[in-house]
Structures are given as structure tokens and as C-alpha cells.
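seq as requested:
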Amino acid sequence: MYQLLHKEKLGPDIYLYRFRAPDIARYRKPGQFVIVRINENGERIPITIADVDTEEGSITLIIQAVGKTTLQMAQMRKGDSIPTLTGPLGEPTEIEKVGRVLCVGGGIGIAPLYPVARAMKDIGNHVTSILGARSANLIILTDLMREASDELIITTDDGSEGQKGLVTDAIRNLVDDGEKFEQCITMGPPIMMKFVCILTEKLGIPTIVSLNPIMVDGTGMCGCCRVTVGGSIKFACIDGPEFDGHKVDFDELMARLDTYRSEEKNALERYSSHAGCRLDSMSEGGSR
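C-alpha cells:
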């Protein structure tokens, strides 16, 4: 059993958890994920590890309560335990000294971006981070991302914090001001990653994306995370979750995300009705 050591609300339906998992904390590398199962009959959901504390023997997970399982997680309290935390899984991020790195995160995607940005800075890269969301209350880990970056830019659709506009607007502004980047790493909603990649390809900036939003089982057995990368079929959970963003077929990926939308919605409605939970709208990028 894996005990919940700490729980914190970061924003609307966004929660941070620290679970005791010393072996995972010891071996995890940036970019890797775990499979979470909150009870014996629960579904398996993959969640990227946002941070570790090897002294405490804990891993940090951040979720947005938008589906049945994440709503169940939102009901957990400090001291509760879950039966399954499997990991670390997935190919870790390639952390190399390349020069100037652009890290772009959207919404809950800021959580998996943080350890990558920190590792990139620690190895000696100059890190510029751009965080985007619909509004200020959906921007998370601002202080940690500021520590992990040489420069931090915040954008919001409604202008409630930072620059009003999209992350792509901020990228254009930086390049127009003469900034040059050897690499871009972007994590967030697929639609955001798609348009970041369209822009960075035009600008000639190599770009890595994390396709964790499409993962379901996390083992490659279910086949739900099949993606086309450079004309070849890949599985996000075992071949990734990170890929060359300029080679990913995002239209196919986003269509696949809708495959089980009605089943997910029905499961959420049944659980919400039974548990008396508030039924939130389904978020783009799938629900768990």
C-alpha cells in the first residue's frame, strides 16, 4: 500500500499529492510516469511524476479532477492509501546541454514540464519557460517554474495574469525580439502542442512533445495510445511518452482521444450521481 503523505489544492479541481513510494522516488527520471490504481477494482491511469523527494521517499503527482477516477482521488485525505503505484515507466527525457531551451507548458501540462525544465537548467542550459492557461487560477507551480527557469513568461487567454494571449504569441514575441533557441519542449493539451509545433517548425526550432494525455493502460497492451510519428506507428506509453513534435500526426491523435468519450462521460455521470459529487464539464484531452 502507498500512503498519501500530503494533499494540496492548487486550483479549481487541481490537486497535488505526495505518496510514499521510496523505490520509485529513487529510480525515477524526468519525463517518466506511474500507473495509479486507487482501489482493488479501480481502473489503471498513467500520471507523470511531477517531483520526487528521495529523503522522504515520496513522489509528487498532480491531477485535475475531470473524470471518475480523478474525482475519486479528489476525495482522498492525508493518511489514506492506494494499492497500486507502478513505475517509473516510459522513456525518460533526454537531458543534454544544448544551449538555450524553450519550455512551454499549458494548464495541467505544467506539472510534467517542471522536472524537465529544472533538469535542463541544472545541467547548464539557459531555460526560458512560457506557461499558459485560460485564466490565472489555472496556472500552477509558478514559484517552482520560476526557480527552474532563467526567464518565466505567463500568458492567459483572458489577461488575468501575465500577457493576454496564447503561448504561441509569446514565442513569436521572443523570436521577433531576436531570441534564438536550440530546443523547445512543450507539454499540455494536444491542441496547444499542435500549434506550438506548427510555429516552431516554421521557426526552425527542434521540438519535443509529451503525449501523456493519450495514454490509457500504460503498458501498450490496450493499443489506445497508438500515434503516427514520422509515418510510423508508435505507442505513447512504451515508445514515449516524448516524441519529435514535428513528426506527430496531431489530427489523428486528437481524433483518437474522442474514441471513448461517451463511455467516459457515462461513467463520470454514474459516479457523480452515486457519490453526490459535482459534475464538471469534460475537459479537452480526455478524462480519467
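The first strand starts at residue 2 and ends at 11.
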